[in-house]
Amino acid sequence: MKELVIEGMTAGELVAQYGTPLYVYDQAKLENNLEAYTQNFKSDLFQTKILYASKAFQTIGMLDLIANYGLGVDVVSGGELYTALQSDVPVEKIHFHGNNKTTEELRMAFESGIVHIVADNVMELEEIAELAEEYQRAVTIQIRLNVGIEAHTHEYIVTTHIDSKFGIAFGSEDYQACLAIFEKSDYLHLEGFHVHIGSQIFEMDAWYAAIDKMLGYLATFDYPMTLNLGGGFGVRYTDEDQPMPIKENMEQILSYLEGKLQETGVTINEVVIEPGRSLVAEAGITLYEIGYQKQTPNKHYYFVDGGMGDNIRPSLYQAKYACDVANKLDAEKTELVTVAGKYCESGDVLIHDVHLPPVEKGDVLVVYSTGAYGYSMSSNYNRNPTPAVVFVKDGKAREIVKRQTLADLIRNDVKNGGEWK
Ligand code: LLP
């Protein structure tokens, strides 16, 4: 029987060595994606910077790889910041995002030497200004703008929607208040604006619409600013998704942008992008062991030893994935099945109505393109330990994250309920 091979290692070898469920990343694919971004996101008209949106898959091992390619990192919490600080990514390449960074998190940023902060609202900018004064530290700020463009897959809408929890509207009272804060502060420098229009975007016109709006805003300043376009570049989960290769996607965005700059005469200093999903999603797979099966009047279930704890996306977003029986790739797919997990929740279904071959207990199921927002959104629901994460390259695997043990699960539990105070 034909078996799945990832960078020279069979699924069987990986499972024998690391158990299941298992997150497996093809390191060569990660590197190809990193190359594709670094080689193709370049311009003669402005500087460029690529920040990995690390929420997609944040571990020290991944960040170290990011650092090898010279990318920066976007973090959105004290925990992501802490992890990034333990990695090889230089502190000056860490950008701190988030709509409600706590005072403690901001202090942590100042104390660890973070110089780039994306400010999301006026109250936050005020607090950053106060802290910069207290620490006597210069900080470079991008303001997150809400441009009223929401993109998702093949659609985008232009709204006058001003009620998003993220960002502020250009020209609004809040916007003016932000400018006043920069006027007063000796430590804050307004570097530019940030926008993030959505996820899994395939529609180029959505990018173009965002660029048009942002250039209009940047043109109101008398110095060349930074334009941060955020992330959202689409990936392939199933055959329904047909993303453009990274190279072409970057070329199209850059050529539109360069054309617009020439047409309008606006000059900009730097363009930043923040890809998350598109760097990691397709490089990752999850391996499960198939357990029992069940036939109901209308459904044939294959149960696997993981589910919503290691991949919440199908239950949370009705996200679709493709799968195979990893040790029976060439077997005839005669069964129409539902792949369900082991969690105590009816919604814990990984894949609905998929054709797979007949299986036995102990066969290995592979779910493809699980590299983004799988591990990073994992939970210990039902006290299932979080799976290990391995990177594979040239016939060898290395463990990036160890499988949680049962002892890890109760590490913070206080026996006998602690002390009444
Ligand atoms: N930059 C900002 C400011 C963001 O908010 C995000 C994602 C990104 C960059 C990266 O976007 P990406 O390239 O990964 O699409 N949990 C959801 C995705 C939430 C994305 C939130 N922001 C999911 O599993 O689909």
Structure explained in plain terms:
The radius of gyration is 23 Å and the shape is globular. The model has no long low-confidence stretch (mean pLDDT 96). It has helices at residues 11-18, 27-40, 60-68, 78-86, 103-112, 122-135, 173-184, 204-218, 246-264, 277-280, 313-317, 406-409; strands spanning 5-6, 9-10, 22-26, 47-53, 72-75, 94-96, 116-119, 139-144, 149-153, 155-158, 188-194, 198-201, 225-228, 268-273, 284-295, 300-304, 323-325, 335-340, 349-356, 364-368, 388-393, 396-401. The chain folds into 2 domains: 5-23 and 281-405, Beta Barrel (Lyase, Ornithine Decarboxylase, Chain A, domain 1), CATH 2.40.37; 97-275, TIM Barrel (Alpha-Beta Barrel). By secondary structure, it is α/β, with parallel strands linked by helices. The protein binds ligand LLP. Residues 53, 56, 74, 97, 196, 199, 230-233, 274-278, 313, 317, 373 line the site of ligand LLP.
Based on the model shown, name its key terms.
421 residues; Lyase, Ornithine Decarboxylase, Chain A, domain 1; TIM Barrel; nine-stranded mixed beta sheet; globular; binds ligand LLP
Mean pLDDT: 96
Q: Report the total helices.
A: 12
What is the number of beta strands?
22
Q: Regarding CATH, which class of the largest domain?
A: Alpha Beta
Q: Give the overall form.
A: globular
Class of secondary structure makeup: alpha/beta
CATH superfamily of the largest domain: Alanine racemase
Distance between the termini: 63 Å
Give the percentage of residues in beta strands: 25-35%
Question: Which CATH architecture of the largest domain is right?
Answer: Alpha-Beta Barrel
Number of domains: 2
The set of bound ligands, ions and cofactors reads: ligand LLP
**How many strands, which pairing sense, and closed or not: the largest β-sheet?**
9 strands, mixed
Radius of gyration: 23 Å
Q: Low-confidence runs (pLDDT<50, min 5 residues)?
A: none
CATH names the topology of the largest domain as TIM Barrel
